[in-house]
Amino acid sequence: MPVVHAESDPWILIDASERSLSVMQNDLVVEDFPGIALGRNGYSADRHQGDGKTPLGEFHVAWVNPQSRFRLFFGLDYPNVERAELAYQRKRIDFNTYSAIREALVKGQIPPQKTALGGYIGIHGVGAGDPRIHKISDWTQGCIALSNTQLDHLEKWIKVGTRVVITDGLRSL
Known about the structure:
Blueprint: E1 10-15, E2 20-25, E3 28-34, E4 43-44, E5 54-55, E6 57-65, E7 73-76, H1 81-89, H2 95-106, E8 122-124, H3 131-136, E9 144-145, H4 148-154, E10 163-167
Parallel strand pairs: 1-10, 4-5, 8-9
Antiparallel strand pairs: 1-2, 2-3, 6-7, 6-10, 7-8
């Protein structure tokens, strides 16, 4: 079953153009994390496997990996239904892939992660990586990265099912 949220549940707003992540309660910022890193090739509403871009859109935390090499990994339910429908219409994925993505999401499961649309998109820390690189460069494969200290503060706000909106700051929610 898909996760149902109360309107007052905290949610995450990522402004890709500002390189910031905010914890939101309704429409109020509860905590702000500036200086995040994105995919090494920026962000896009039309992401595909291996392009190094962070996808724009609305997602939810689908799983948590506390053993991640990036300290902690909050995996998103990417690709979402809208992304899969568009890719199917454009013949970037076949009907079986589209159906598998849709069925998983309807059941509240993790969608297939190894498709032409890519996968394994999430929010994570630097881990044992160089924090100096994090401060000066977008370095991920499409994920959203925070410093390890920021991730430690963010962890209390996130759980499986938390809504995550990634925007370029120009589009309305």
